Amino acid sequence: MGTHLAHLTGMKKRTIAAVSAGAALTLILAGCAATESDPAAEQTTLVVDSTFALSSMDPARAFEATGTMVNHNVYETALTFAGSDLSTLVPQVADYTISDDNRLVTLTLTGDSTFSDGTAVTADDVVFSYQRLQGVLGNPSFLLDGVTVTKVDDQTVELLSETDNPQLPFILPNPALSILQQSAVVDNGGTLDETDAAETFLTSTSVGSGPYMYDTVAVTTAISLVKNPSYAGEEPYYDRIVINNVGADTQRINLEGGQTDIALNISSDEAEQVDTNDFSVTTGASAATYYLWLNTDDAFGGVAADVNFVKAMRHAIDYDSILDVVGLGSQQPGGVVPLQFAGSLESDENNTYDPDLAEDLLAESGYAGEIVNVLYSSENAFAANVTQIVQANAAAIGVTIELNPQTAANTLDLFRGGEYQAGLANWGADFPDAANYLVFAPEGNIGARTAWNFGDGATADQIQPLAAAAAAASGDDDRADAYIAFQEALNDYGPYIPLFQPAEIVIGDVALTGIASNALWAIDFSTVAGS
Amino acid sequence: MALTTTDARVPGGAPAAETGAPRPPRRQHPLLRYISLRFGISILLVWGVTVVTFVVTNLVPTDPVNAVLGEQAANNPEIVAALRTEMGLDEPLIVQYWLYLTRLLAFDMGVSAQTRSPVADDLARAFPATLELALFVLLFSTVIGVGLGMLAALRHQTAVDKTIRVLSLFGISLPVFWIAMLIYYVFFYQLHWAPGSGRLDSALVPPPLVTGMYTIDSLVAGQPDLFWNALSHLVLPAVVLTLFTIGTLVRFSRSAILDVVRHDYVQAARAKGLPHRIVVVRYILRGASLPILTMSGLTFGSLLSGAVLTESVFSWHGLGQYAYMAAISLDLQAIMGVGLLIGVVYIFTNFAVDLLCGLIDPRVRVQ
After folding, report:
1. Can you give the pLDDT at residue B22?
2. Residues of A in Cβ contact (< 8 Å) with B193
3. What is the pLDDT at residue B276?
4. N or C: which end of chain B has fewer CB within 10 A?
5. Is A205 part of a structural domain of the chain?
6. Cα–Cα distance between A446 and A464 in angstroms, integer?
7. Going by DSSP bridges, is the β-strand pair A222-227/A240-245 parallel, antiparallel, or unpaired?
8. String of DSSP letters for B81-123
9. CB within 8 A of A182, min separation 6: which ones?
10. Same domain assignment for residues B125 and B99
11. Are B35 and B180 found together in one domain?
12. φ, ψ for residue B317 (rounded to 5)?
């Protein structure tokens, strides 16, 4: 038997060795084939890594970062921004005027824009696109709430707001207000109400006048764009843009390994380690404000509803430590409005690190060692580290914080329920105007989340009039002053502690030019060129 | 049972009534009976899976509407109501289940909230990517795993056996995401031996859709360059998953073969002087094939149900990635679709394994 076994194992060994060698050879051959593959053509192709946040490609429904980025490159809007600058409006499909009472915006078509099939963009297309946005009841429909859209003549469209709406021109560049070719959309089920059935069509076909048009779209995998032959603007450098859905952890390897030209989601830590001889790191201020919120209703907030407790926490937090953790390009805003917007607050003495003052305020709050529960999304890149710093800072003045990480969906659900004690959240601007931050007022959306609108009436009564005054203010200087006053009051009495603004980081091959990080749509591919 | 006037089984072809002989009971072939029984059980299990996925998904305390809507839209009751209706959440649960079940009969799994596409279409895109990878991995892990398991068993308690057992432990013990990142870093980034992430180079256009598996579709389309490119992209994720699955297969095969080697019939075969190859193939391997087959089936099922971390590192947009995104975005229709698909995959993989077991071992089908 022993001899038999020895023979058997010898035979098996040879067999196994042969099979293993065959397998290894196949692997090696297949691997080698990668270097021999012949990329399709002489076309210039820009490969971009992005972690997709995408549900719909229909501009009237798309509200996530990837859809917004792609739509900006495929469609045109009435007005737009150039590069990173969100303070200066640039005419695209139209130029504009706004009435003295800030209620009537008049768009005058430039007449230059043409859709990808060569037909001209008309006033009817503008009216249809805006009315469809309002009617389909999608995520971005609120952008034109209370606005009546009317065609005046073939070159003119009027937007009449029910109330003062000085921010409306700054809403118009949002890709949700892209101008779509009416006939194509209608032919494919488009309507002006919730019966609209053009979303599927618009996920596979672009009907815009932007520099690019869809080539292929796989919303979970990759999107490729090709030049729009009828684009009226300056012809883009790249013939084709391929945007791959790639996890943030892999993007740096892909970039440095030569597979990718531009990466959009490399973390600030990793961005600082990238060799700047080979890659350019472009940082721009994001339009997101991260803040700690505390429930103002005694029933849910407990001790966190106390104004002195909130003030104690404001001074307990070491903001510089938070900026160190958030990393490259991050800033501490003075209020909830991001620093690059008119009406922002550069700094505020209420939001400064002063542990001694924090302890005094805590003593006045009546805090008796209760556990304060802080909710955050475990999917957020910054949340875990930042809340741990807050927890440690709070512990230093004697406050016990228990962290409660949840999925983004659960976090949203608990936040919107208005009954959770405290948490970390962020607000990204829907449009670059301080008016978008009126949601933090007692009667605003975020006010509802912190139970402010049915909680402590005393502080709400002090702040709501300032919010109303800011909304009604007119003229650049007056508006800025009004929003600053609103934010100072928020810092005095409000339940929000602004913590930081992260940076938008775009990293690309150093040979590329024209990369600009934009807080609304990340990047404009039409300005990117190779060497 | 009433007798028929013509029963072909009566000898001589005479009518049974005329012969007066009692008609023997109709007996189905044991294998057919076995298949019918297994298939019936599988169908019942599929129905059970629809109940479980629906109930479990709807037990989640979070409101899926919140996961879909932005902050401003969530504050608009009209938009919230419209979305609730669109998602079918305005009906009682039992009605929702009935609607779900009736739609399923028409292969309609609803619309995904995260992709705004029919879930069936999403799955039809994601599943072939995973299937292609799983088939590749199953091939390699079975050949290598069973081979090494056999070598270890036949060299029981030798240095070879111990080495194989220790190595197999590595595959099982090391975190798959770590192996994936390491392999990707070394072979793509450092050595440039393998292509980057994804199923094809970015500059290439996928072949026309036939099966959704790029290697097969590219061959069907007569695009050998595309085939080699697709195959090259398969290598690294397949190696990672092979390392992960091979350990289990090695240990399982070794154990099964050791068990068989000690049986009397193997000793008898050897005593008869049968050639060693015959003893190994016809006696040992066949005897050990049932547990190995069962294990391979389970491995295949688990591979098909998605390898989330590996797919994530290699940007392989298969079922695992889709399931992960559905779960974190609380996309109920997609979660139910994935749950049902994975359930069906497991059930029918087991069904296939049961059939093969029945074919290999007559005792199984008799039981």
Report:
1. 64
2. 28, 31-32, 34
3. 86
4. N
5. no
6. 13
7. antiparallel
8. HHHHHHTTTTS-HHHHHHHHHHHHHTT---B-TTT-SBHHHHH
9. A122, A124, A125, A128, A129, A190
10. no
11. no
12. -85, 75
Do A281 and A415 lie in a common domain? no
Is B37 a member of any domain?
yes
> What are the b/e assignments for B189-206, b being 16+ CB within 10 Å?
beeebbbbbbbbbbbbeb
CA angle B258, B263, B264 (to 5 degrees): 150
Are A149 and A46 found together in one domain?
A: no
Other residues' Cβ atoms within 10 Å of the Cβ of residue B91:
13
**pLDDT at residue B306 in the model:** 63
pLDDT value for B352: 87
Residues in chain B with CB shorter than 8 Å from the CB of A20 are 144, 147
Q: Which residues of A405-434 are buried (b: 16+ CB within 10 A; e: fewer)?
A: bbbbbbbbbbbbebebbbbbbbbbbbbbbb
Structural domain contains residue A421: yes
Give domain status of residue A184, yes or no. Answer: yes
Q: Order of strands across the sheet with A503-509?
A: A212-218, A222-227, A240-245, A45-50, A262-263, A503-509, A279-285
- Distance of residue B125 Cα from the nearest chain A Cα, in angstroms: 9
The ipTM is 0.75
In a domain, B24, yes or no: no
Domain residues for the domain of A307 are: 288-501
How far out from the chain centre does Cα B208 lie? 25
How many angstroms separate the Cα of A355 from the Cα of each of A305, A352, A361, B225?
20, 9, 10, 66
Q: For chain B, positions 133-162, list CB contacts with chain A under 8 A.
A: 140, 143-144, 147-148, 150-151, 154-155
Joined together, the tokens standing for residue B111 give 């619309």
Q: Let me know whether B85 and B125 are in one domain.
A: no
Q: Does B266 touch chain A (CB under 8 A)?
A: no
Q: Are residues B34 and B150 in the same domain?
A: no
Question: Which CATH number belongs to the domain containing residue A273 in this structure?
Answer: 3.40.190.10
CB contacts under 8 A, B 294-323 vs A, are: 312-315, 317, 321-322
pLDDT tens-digit map of B64-94: 888 788 888 888 888 888 888 888 888 888 8
Judge whether B319 and B306 are in contact, CB under 8 Å.
yes
Confidence (pLDDT) at A38: 44
* Residue A19: per-residue pLDDT: 46
Q: Count of domains in chain B?
A: 2
Does residue A363 lie within any of the structural domains?
A: yes
- The CATH number of residue B227's host domain is 1.10.3720.10
* Domain interval for residue B257: 119-365
Give chain A's residues under pLDDT 50: 1-41
B354 within a domain of the structure (yes/no): yes
User: Which candidate in A1, A3, A4, A43 is best for mutational testing of the B interface (most B CBs within 10 A)?
Assistant: A4
pLDDT of the residue at B309 = 85
| Residue B39 pLDDT greater than 70, yes or no | yes
Chain B: give the shortest CA distance to residue A433, in Å.
15
Substitution target in A259, A262, A293, A427 with the highest count of B β-carbons within 10 Å is A259
pLDDT score at B291: 85
Kindly state the tokens that stand for B57.
Answer: 């998904």
State whether A324 and A393 are in the same domain.
yes
Strand A279-285 relative to strand A288-294, pairing? unpaired
Flag if A379 and B328 touch (Cβ within 8 Å). yes
pLDDT of residue B5 exceeding 70: no
Residues A303 and A422 reside in one and the same domain:
yes
Q: Is B125 on the interface with A (CB under 8 A)?
A: yes
Q: Which of B116, B156, B188, B233 to mutate to test the interface with A (most CBs of A within 10 A)?
A: B116
Number of domains in chain A: 3
